[in-house]
Amino acid sequence: MAKAFGVVGGYIAGSAALCDFVRSFASGFIFTTALPPAVAALASIRHLKTSSIERRQLQERAALLRRRLDAAQIPHRNNPSHIVPVIVGDPVLCRHISDRLLDEFQVCVQPINYPTVPRGTERLRLTPSPLHSEADIDHLVRALALIWSERDLRRAA
């Protein structure tokens, strides 16, 4: 869309050797048609100034995730944020859970370990978005509950 709307684009002037060099080694720059991040961010900010739908959906998704975690008896920190921390308390176990979620269930969850958080408070950072469906959240919680229910996780948590 970028070049089609005249937002980005340009040309390079130089010798044939220079133009060939840029074309060969900067193909990601030359052949991309994506909007620059700053342009996309500005459009998002302008949209969110007049729309509260996304904020409401974000809060609804975070609340749904918290309810599903409660029902599955998975401990999480209660806070007003849309970020839902699941406290694991062990850095190796935290990474293990994150890896299994990705490898076995195709769910990407960020493990947060020291020095980002104090030792003993390692956690999984769950961040639902307005675009996550109820099915997405259920899939995450089912996968996490399955992993969490294993004997070694109960002792560590």
Class of secondary structure makeup: mainly alpha
Strand content: 5-15%
Q: Would you identify the regions where 5 or more consecutive residues have pLDDT less than 50?
A: none
**Mean pLDDT figure:** 87
What's the alpha carbon Rg, rounded to whole Å?
22 Å
Number of strands: 3
Quickly count the helices: 7
Describe the protein in words:
The chain has 7 helices and 3 strands. The protein has 157 residues and is mostly helical. It has a 3-stranded antiparallel β-sheet, covered by helices on one side. Helix 4 (53-71) packs parallel to helix 6. The protein is elongated, with a radius of gyration of 22 Å. The N and C termini lie far apart (48 Å).
How would you briefly describe this protein structure?
Helix content is 53%, strand content 7%. With 157 residues, it is mainly α.
Strand-helix topology:
Layout: H1 16-25, H2 27-30, H3 37-50, H4 53-71, E1 84-87, H5 91-105, E2 110-112, E3 123-126, H6 134-148, H7 151-156
Antiparallel strand pairs: 1-3, 2-3
Helix pairs in contact: 4-6, 5-6
Q: Could you list some keywords that capture this structure?
A:
157 residues, mainly alpha, elongated
